[in-house]
User: Fold this.
Amino acid sequence: MSDKDEFIEKLHATGHRLTPQRALVLKIIEESREHLDAEAIWQQAQELQGQINLATIYRNLSVLKEMGLVQQRYFAREHKREVYESALKPEHYHFTCLDCGEVVEFETARIQQARTELASEIGVQITHGCVCFEGYCSSCSIKHKSEA
Assistant:
């Protein structure tokens, strides 16, 4: 079964349809190599389809999040900017450079290890975790060391 068929099945199972707008939002998120917020998705949708308003983007993002097809992320502790990613991506985490703003994606088994240990030690069931790392990328780190 293709990813699109899986999306359609999930939408139908919850009483939703794959509207042209939802398909467009999913396509933009899946094909992007950047981390997009709602306004960036809206700008790309405008370029691809023309007249689509920002409220439509937000409504569709909400439905797609509810269906588990899109994930909302934050890259900093202030949670100022929401970005969206396809839920089909493997579990991964983000490091954000405090100087240049570069976002680096990475995978590690250690987070799952921590979840398993926490669940075992205190008897909880973890359904969602939010981990973001901040600091200085290798280039900015060198710059900060030379300034010190």
The chain is about 50% helix and 15% strand.
